[in-house]
Structure formats: C-alpha cells, structure tokens
Amino acid sequence: MQQPTFKILLADDDQDDQIILIEALQEAQPFIDIATVFNGKEAIQYLSTLSPSDYPNLIILDYKMPIYNAADVLSKMEPAYKGIPTVVWSTSNQSEHIEQCLSLGALKYFTKPSSQPELSQLVSDIFVICQPQVEKL
Fold it and tell me: How far is CA 96 from the centre of its chain?
C-alpha cells in the first residue's frame, strides 16, 4: 500500500540551505515530496503548471531571492493559491520584511537557524502550522 504524500514547494536560491532544510524535513516526516525552485518567479511558474489536486500542502519561501522575493511571490499569488499554507524563512530578520510577509498572507516568518537544535525546532514549528494536513498521512 502506497503511503500518502505531503507535498512541499521550497523556493530558495541557496542550494546549501535547500539541502539542509530538505534533510531535516524528510527526517521529521518521511512521506513528503519536495519540489524545489531557485527564485520567486520559478515558484509562481511552478504553481501555474499544477492542477488543484496537485497543489502543494505547504509553500516555503526564502525572503531574499532573485527576480521575485518572498513578498513579491505572496503578492502575485493567484487567489487559488492563497489557501495553501505558506511560510517564509530567511537570514533577514528585519521587522519590515516580517510585517510585509505576514500582511500578505504568510502564516509565519522564520529566521534561518544557525544550529541543528534550532533547525529541528523550525521544522517542528512548520509541521505544527500544517498539522491538519500532516494528520491525514
């Protein structure tokens, strides 16, 4: 029997950060499928190729990306994508970035962790935010 899959779209221009987060997410929740893109424009384009049944259960956006940053992505998202839980993670902890993303619909803004315990807590917090979808697995 095939296990249900929790789908995540991760948009981050730093491949090392992508790898670190993907490994932590997969360790915490083995039945996930993570699509990655390297900028905000690619995130919007990726979403536009999906049918509603294939939408991710979660979108994770880095704030500082080329072409479109996280705030740009949030503001350009089609109404159909607004129901997808979206979080931002970034090295930037500037209050204006945080406030902007939250006002545009991000559920949470995380500062990228600098230690393994912080990363584990961030992943745990992400799955708490998405608890209804995770419980379906």
Answer: 20
Instruction: Provide mean pLDDT across the span 64-72.
Output: 96
Mean per-residue pLDDT, 85-91? 96
pTM of structure? 0.92
Residue 1 and residue 135 in contact, taking contact as beta carbons nearer than 8 Å: no
**In the chain, where are the structural domains located?**
6-135
Report, at the CATH architecture level, how domain 6-135 is classified.
Answer: 3-Layer(aba) Sandwich (3.40)
DSSP code string of 78-134? -GGGTTS-EEEEES---HHHHHHHHHTT-SEEEEPPSSHHHHHHHHHHHHHHTHHHH
